[in-house]
Task: inverse folding
């Protein structure tokens, strides 16, 4: 009987530890693309992320999990769209990235960050 009680407690302890580890990691896993898109304007205003000439978002302030999650989700979506556009137009993905990057930098609002010559600068 003691063995069964120990086994039940051990399984319960393992389940508790696994659920705790999962709960701790949930905030990072919880964001989806729609939430990232909704959070993007505020992240740009706060100077957390900015546009790069390569067509992708960059993290301006390192070690910010929200900024990293936003950039990753949006960049993954952009990457897929660039690949689709390149295929549909029979051009290189790098050409689509360059065109998108140029447009993104040009359209960036004043006060938001852009990457120029390897440095993050607020657009004036």
Result:
């Amino acid at each position: 009987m003691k063995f069964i009680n120990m086994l039940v407690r051990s399984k319960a302890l393992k389940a508790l530890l696994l659920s705790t580890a999962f709960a701790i990691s949930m905030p990072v896993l919880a964001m989806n693309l729609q939430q990232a898109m909704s959070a993007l304007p505020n992240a740009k205003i706060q100077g957390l992320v900015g546009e790069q000439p390569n067509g992708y978002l960059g993290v301006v302030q390192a070690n910010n999990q929200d900024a990293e999650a936003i950039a990753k989700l949006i960049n993954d979506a952009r990457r897929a769209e660039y690949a689709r556009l390149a295929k549909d137009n029979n051009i290189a993905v790098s050409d689509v990235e360059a065109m998108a990057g140029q447009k993104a930098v040009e359209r960036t609002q004043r006060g938001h960050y852009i990457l120029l010559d390897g440095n993050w600068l607020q657009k004036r």
Q: What stands out?
A: Residues 15-28 have pLDDT under 50 and may be disordered. The first strand starts at residue 49 and ends at 51. The chain has one domain: 31-122. Residues 31-122 form one domain.
